[in-house]
Amino acid sequence: MRRLDEATAAAISGEMRNRTAIGSTCCCLIFACERVFDYDRALQWCERLKDYCERISYVPMLGVCRSHYAGVLMWAGAWEQAESELTEAARTLQATRPAFLAEAIARQGYLRFQQGRLDEAVSLIEQVLHFPPAQLGMGRLALDLGEAETALDHAERYLRHIPSENRTERVGGLELMVRAHLALGNLNDAQHTLKELTVVAREIGTGPLLAITNLIGGLVAAGNNDHESARSLLEDTAALFAHSGAPYEMGQARIALSQSLEALGRLPAAEREAHAALLSLRKLGAERQAARAEALLQRLQHSRKMRPDETRERQLLSARQKEVLTLIAQGLGDQEIAEQLMLSQHTVHRHVTNILTRLGVPSRAAAVAYAARQGLL
C-alpha cells in the first residue's frame, strides 16, 4: 500500500505523462484500498483523483473512479451522494468504457438492497449476473428473503471463481456463506468458513475488515448459544464500525448485540441497543433493516410488560406461522414443509420471512433458538 501511495502521488503530481500509465496506477491503488477494506485511505485518494481527472478532463478514468468512490460513500452512509456518483459513472462509462459499466450497475443494485428497495435491486443486479460481485448481491437478496439455500448457492458460485490465493477477494463470499450456513442451521460449516475469514482479517488488520469478521464471529457464537461470547464480540464490532464511520453495518451489529443481550436476560440493555439501531437505520434510510430493529424493540418492550400467563409467541405469530416454525425446528426444509402443510413452496418462503421479521431474528436457527428459550418447542 505504501508503494502504491508513492506511485499514485507521482502519477498525479506531473512526474508521469502517459495517460494510460497514470490511469493504471490510480486504478491499482483504488482497487487495492477496497480489497483490503481501507476505506479511509480510499476516501482520501478518491477525492484527490476526482479533482485531478476533472482538472485534466480525463473522462474515462473519472467514470471508473466514480464507481469505486460511490462504494466508499455507501460504506460511510452518504447514500445520496453515492447515488449521484453512480448515476454519473454509469453515464460516463456507457459512453467511454462500457466494459466497466457492470461495476456501477452492481453497486447501484447493492445500494437499493441496503435501502430496502428489493424489487429495484433485483432488476439492476440481474442485468450484470456475469459480473462475479453480482452473485454476492443476489445471494444477499435471497438471504434477506429467507431463501438461505439459494444464498448459499450464490456464495459457492462466487467463490468458485476466486482463487484461494486471492484472499481478500474471497471475503464477501465467505461472509455470505457463513450467514447462509447459520440460517440453515449448519453450525459446523459456519464455524469452518469463519476460520478462513478470520485468517485473512488478522493478516490484513484494517478496522473495517476486523469489524466484519467480529460481526460474523458474534453471529456464529450466538448460533451456538454462546451469547456471552457473542455479546463481547458484538460490542467490539459496534465500536469498530462506529470508528470506521459505517452506520449501516453498525446498525446490523447493534441488532445482533440486542438479540444476544436478550438471550442473556439483560432486557434494558437489549432495548437500548435495539433503539439505537432503529434510530441510526431510520435516519440512514435503510427501511427494511429499520423495520427489523423496530420489531425487535417492540418485542423487548412487550416482554417487560407481559403478564405471567402470556407468551411472546402468542402475541406475535399466527397459527400457521407457529406450525411452520415447529416444522423448521424438526429439521424440515421448505419443500418438505410445503408438502406436509399442503402449501406452495413460495408460501412457505413468505411465512418464514414473516416469522423472522416478527421475531426480530436474522435466521431460521435463531428463530428456533428463541422459541426453545421460551419453552415453545
Give an overview in words:
The protein has 377 residues and is an all-alpha fold. It contains 21 helices and no strands. Helix 4 (59-75) runs parallel beside helix 6, helix 13 (227-244) packs antiparallel against helix 14 (247-263) and helix 18 (319-329) crosses helix 20. It starts with a helix and ends with a helix.
Give the structure's gist in a few sentences.
With 377 residues, the protein is mainly alpha-helical.
Query: How much is the average pLDDT?
Result: 88
What coarse outline follows from CA principal-axis ratios? elongated
Query: Which residue ranges are poorly predicted, with pLDDT under 50 across at least 5 consecutive positions?
Result: 307-314
Biggest beta sheet attributes: none
Put simply, the count of helices is 21
The tally of beta strands, per DSSP, is: 0
Distance between the termini: 53 Å
Rg for CA atoms:
22 Å
Helix fraction by DSSP (H/I, runs of at least 4): over 70%
| Order of helix and strand elements from N to C terminus | HHHHHHHHHHHHHHHHHHHHH
SSE class: mainly alpha
Measured by DSSP, the beta-strand proportion falls in under 5%
Oligomer: single chain
